[in-house]
Each structure stands twice: as C-alpha cells, then as structure tokens.
TrEMBL record:
Top-level lineage group: Bacteria
Protein name (database record): Endonuclease
Species name: Candidatus Ignatzschineria merdigallinarum
Origin organism lineage: Bacteria, Pseudomonadati, Pseudomonadota, Gammaproteobacteria, Cardiobacteriales
Keyword Nuclease belongs to the record: yes
UniProtKB keywords: Endonuclease, Hydrolase, Nuclease
GO function terms (MF aspect): endonuclease activity; hydrolase activity
Amino acid sequence: ARTYLYMVGRYELAISDREKNLMNRWNEKYPPNRWECERNEMIREIQGNDNQYITSKCDALLI
C-alpha cells in the first residue's frame, strides 16, 4: 500500500478515492517494520529520494 501511495504522489498514478482511502487505512493499521525502514533508508542513500509514507513513521525504529 505504501508503494502505491508513494507512486500516486510522485508519479501522479491514478487510483480511485476508495483505493486511496483503503491504502491509507492499511498504512495506519500496519506501520513499517525495522526492515522496511532500513530498506527505505538504503534507497534514499542510493537514489536520493525516499518514501515519505515510510520515513515519517521510522524515526523511533531507527534510533
């Protein structure tokens, strides 16, 4: 779900409001785990950008 939300914002991927709401609910219910946070950080280091849907929830996990 976080990948789709990222794609919607970054590349203007078209999804329905219903799909977006579902993915936002999933994102809130299932926060990223440590592995997902570390992976997001590695991608940021290599590509120079990150998925804010992950980054915004990872601060506590990566301390």
